[in-house]
């Protein structure tokens, strides 16, 4: 799954130190899957389950947010992002519920930052992601054994639960030319032990991640920013995860992630 999200923003300061913003969301998604042919026998559209190359779709939604100052040293914020309604992935209409529908779930959150000194700022935020409201993501395998095939309205999905995400971070201005950053994020696991079978294709089971970053001013107008993120290996061991119709047994899924980024900024 690949996603590109474009979100132009309009913000209005309605009172000194308090602003509201609105961002229309425009999304392009691409999905490609190989190796899921065994599930075709349980699909309403067996030809559109697996090995069909990359399919593309577009979608739209909206995000609204608030940012405010409480005194000189505290900032607070909140946001709500609607579900992003996407077109259907026709080449995988036999896999995803509702004939290939794959919306991006709604989310909302709150956060705050505190200036703890001339050089140090601390921040924390909370976010809720509502996976269960998207059938292809939130539905479990149970409908399959009630006679509802893959691809149907109300059909089987990945069984992801809604999750809570907590993040904590710090920014330290080491010098006029150097800013250091560090953060930690922790979330609930969206994948229950009973739903690991289909999640061998999407093992989104990492729970914690650590991030370090820095910005270096290389001139009065130019700066370079880099970061590294590491999410240690997380394993979910299946329990009742492979139904007898599929041969029985258990499916264990695990995932670790590492990401690096580098950007260059120049002020005209």
What does this structure look like?
It is a single chain. This protein has 268 residues and is mostly beta strands. It has two domains: 1-106 and 124-160, no CATH class; 166-268, no CATH class. 3% of the residues lie in helices and 49% in strands. It has two helices and 13 strands; from the N terminus they run ββββββαββαβββββ. The protein has helices at 97-100, 135-138; strands spanning 2-6, 10-15, 18-31, 55-70, 74-81, 85-86, 107-115, 120-129, 163-175, 178-187, 208-217, 222-236, 253-266. Strands 1, 2, 3, 4, 5, 6, 7, 8, 9, 10, 11, 12 and 13 form a 13-stranded antiparallel beta sheet that branches. A hairpin with a 4-residue loop joins strand 11 and strand 12. The model has no long low-confidence stretch (mean pLDDT 95). Belongs to the OmpP1/FadL family. It is a multi-pass membrane protein. It is found in: Cell outer membrane. One of its GO terms (molecular function) is long-chain fatty acid transporting porin activity. Pfam families: Toluene_X.
């Amino acid at each position: 799954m690949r996603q590109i999200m474009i979100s132009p923003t309009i913000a209005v300061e309605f009172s000194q130190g308090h602003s509201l913003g609105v961002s229309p969301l425009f999304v392009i998604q691409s999905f490609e899957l190989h190796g899921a042919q065994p599930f075709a026998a349980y699909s309403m559209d067996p030809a559109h389950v697996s090995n069909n190359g990359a399919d593309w779709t577009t979608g739209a939604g909206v995000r609204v947010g608030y940012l405010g100052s409480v005194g000189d040293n505290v900032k607070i914020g909140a946001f709500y992002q609607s579900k992003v309604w996407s077109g259907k992935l026709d080449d995988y209409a036999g896999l995803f519920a509702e004939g290939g529908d794959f919306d991006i779930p709604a989310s909302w959150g709150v956060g705050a930052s505190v200036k703890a000194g001339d050089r140090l700022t601390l921040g924390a935020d909370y976010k809720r992601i509502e996976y269960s409201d998207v059938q292809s993501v939130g539905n479990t395998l149970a409908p399959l054994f009630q006679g509802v095939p893959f691809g149907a309205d109300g059909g089987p999905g990945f069984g992801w639960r809604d999750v809570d995400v907590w993040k904590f971070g710090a920014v330290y201005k080491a010098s006029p030319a150097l800013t250091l950053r560090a953060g930690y994020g922790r979330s609930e696991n969206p994948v229950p032990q009973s739903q690991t079978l289909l999640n061998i294709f999407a093992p989104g089971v990492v729970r914690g991640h650590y991030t370090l970053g820095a910005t270096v001013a290389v001139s009065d107008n130019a700066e370079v920013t880099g970061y590294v993120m590491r999410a240690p290996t997380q394993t979910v061991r299946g329990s009742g995860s492979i139904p007898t119709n599929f041969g029985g047994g258990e499916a264990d899924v695990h995932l670790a992630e590492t990401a690096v980024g580098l950007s260059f900024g120049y002020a005209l």
